[in-house]
Amino acid sequence: MTLTNVTLVGMGPRGLSVLERILEHAQRLPADARLHIDVIDAGEAGQGSHPSRQPDHLLINTVASQITMFAPHSVAGGDGGGPSLVEWAAERGYRRFGQRYFRVEDGSGEAITEFDHLPRSLLGEYLAWVYDRVVKLLPERITVAHHRSRVLDVEERGRRFQVRLENGYVYPADFVFLVTGHGRRKPTDDDQRAGVFVERHVARNPKLGFFASPYPVMGLSTISAQATVAVQGFGLTAHDVISELTLGRGGRYVETANGLQYEASGREPRILMFSRNCLPFAARGVNQKGLTGKHQAQFFTPAAVRALADAAKRARNDPRIDFRADVLPLIVKEMAYAYRSAARQQTVDPATFEATPDERQAIDAILWPLKGRRFASAAAFQQFFDQQFNDDLAHAFKGNLTSPVKAATDVLRDTREALRTAVEFGGSLPDSQRFFVEEFNAITNRVAFGPPKRRNVEFLALRAAGLLDLAGGPGARVSGDPASSQFRIDTPYTDGTTERFADVLIAARLDSFSPLTDDSALTANLLRRGLIRPYRNGDYHPGGIDIDVHSRPIGVNGRAHPRLWAIGFLVEGAHFYTHALPRPQIASRQTADAERCVLQLFDALDEQHTYSADSDAPIPVDDFQETV
Fold it and tell me: CB of 540 within 8 A of CB of 567?
């Protein structure tokens, strides 16, 4: 019986999707063939960056009813489609006790609802359960071994690979899937300056510290309760930091007649927040669309984007479009359409729709609230910030169908496929993709992919308790101040520059992946061996490795490898928004990417079986195929 070895480098949600698709198509395995899968992941299989042992105060920013790992009508899901995260949690006996979730047998506590934002630790437990379920359902001729280590190198040896692990073991592989998920950057110049500053001045200020990344958040326990902490960022990572420095230190929130209040434990440091623009991330609106509902686009659709590409090709013999000039007007019009529909609470005829000046101004205010504004002082910016924050929170409580603002911002979530059509595989001109990646995508994250509204309510409670404040405004910059042996945050206003000081600096952002800046030995070795190369759109590198349309990495020779695949965060550049988890009852991009690769695997197994069964079958002269 022929044995084929497959290696999955990583076993987070992306690797789990590959394994689930192998189960889905297991019947395609030739009758006299066996498949052995080596899963290489140092953590619990399935969990990836969502370990079940992380603190339970860290929340998922998507409601649990909209998360699943089961594709519709799949073998793994069975007749019932497989439980979503919220269904699984209820089946396992989890109940809500205030803002925490425990597994009980007596039915105490409150039932989890479709609107709950569950802890990420529960997501990790769910992912591990799905992994176990998939492995148990695999036929006997497909075996899986999980190796708790990291891959250091993948070396090609003839028609096979040697996969070298951190623990010293080497495993053979006929096929390799790169599904490593999030990486970590090499220290930047700013990181190195901050680190050197701490080394030189910590003797004068023992509270001094710098965190280039806050993860795992348990590492923040070394921060003194007497310290002032500057958090650089306002996004989801910043909310994790705030939660760890408050709830993680024994504080708690209590409901009172005057609203939510924070009761301090006395072990919390003081927190100052700043970023490049110092704008709050918008809270998620109450979901009024159910499990599968979404805005039905009228103007910004994949077909409309393809039409723009066709027009560009006719006009200049180049199908790449200008995102800012061609695509952005469609997005703004679609948002204005959703805005009016929600404001009137009735269907608007798209055939006659044109945004009014007031509607365009409303969308501009959502996307570019700082446009044309200058602030005389920190107090003036504080007033503006508070108005932005409170107005947005009020809209979040209205819901994503009732609030015109949340209906408009949800367009950016619900039209993701049109965005992909516009920017993937060099669909946009290089300079316009730079604008999309470095400016517009950041705006999208701020207005449409923010924290649960509960987090922003807690933000207000912490400010009222005197534990959290703004460190600056737009244009804030941080540097080490030798005179005070602290970090100094400077913000220019028209009336002068303000200074705020902090003992600890935390860079609260997730690293984007680039093979040029990734800190892993595996990435460095894959580059050195020429198996991968950075993805580029002309002279612009948005991130990620280069792949062809079949998700096969393109090597330094310009060709795609037929026995190597990469999906997920590694290819964020050629692809867009690769980190979203599947939603129940909806065909997901994550599953589709895994399906594409797994079908190629089984095609190769069929071909391999034909060659081994028929000695007269021709052997390909060149295993490598030209990239599409």
Answer: no
**What superfamily would CATH give domain 189-281+452-507?**
FAD/NAD(P)-binding domain (3.50.50.60)
- Considering Cα of 394, then 396, then 401, then 406, what sign does the dihedral take? positive
CB 311 within 8 A of CB 420: no
- In the 8-state DSSP scheme, what is residue 583? -
Q: What pLDDT, on the 0 to 100 scale, is given for residue 79? A: 79
Q: What predicted TM-score, i.e. pTM, was given to this entire model?
A: 0.93
Element (H, E) at 4: strand 2-9
CB of 300 closer than 8 Å to CB of 418: yes
**Numbered ranges of CATH 3.50.50.60 in the chain:** 2-81+124-185+512-626, 189-281+452-507
Sign, CA dihedral 349-352-357-363, equals positive
Cβ distance 506 to 522 under 8 Å?
A: no
**Binned average pLDDT, 10 residues per bin, the chain of 628 residues:** 95 97 96 96 95 94 92 89 94 92 93 92 97 98 97 95 96 97 92 98 98 96 98 96 97 95 98 96 92 91 97 95 97 98 95 97 98 96 97 97 97 95 96 96 95 96 98 97 98 97 96 94 98 97 97 97 96 92 88 96 86 38 27
pLDDT score at 507: 97
CB 95 within 8 A of CB 57: no
Run of H or E residues at 236: helix 236-246
Contact 155, 13 (CB under 8 A): no
Superfamily for the 2-81+124-185+512-626 domain: FAD/NAD(P)-binding domain (3.50.50.60)
Neighbours of 577 (CB within 10 A): 17
CA distance 113 to 172: 46
In whole angstroms, how far apart are CA 388 and each of 145, 442, 568? 52, 17, 34
Structure tokens given for 176: 């390799």
Directed axis angle between helix 328-344 and helix 357-367, to 10°? 110
Exposed, middle or buried by CB within 10 Å (0-12, 13-18, 19+), for 587? Answer: exposed
Report yes or no: 542 and 514 within 8 Å, Cβ to Cβ. no
562 Cβ contact partners less than 8 Å away, ≥ 6 residues apart: 552, 600, 604, 623, 624, 625
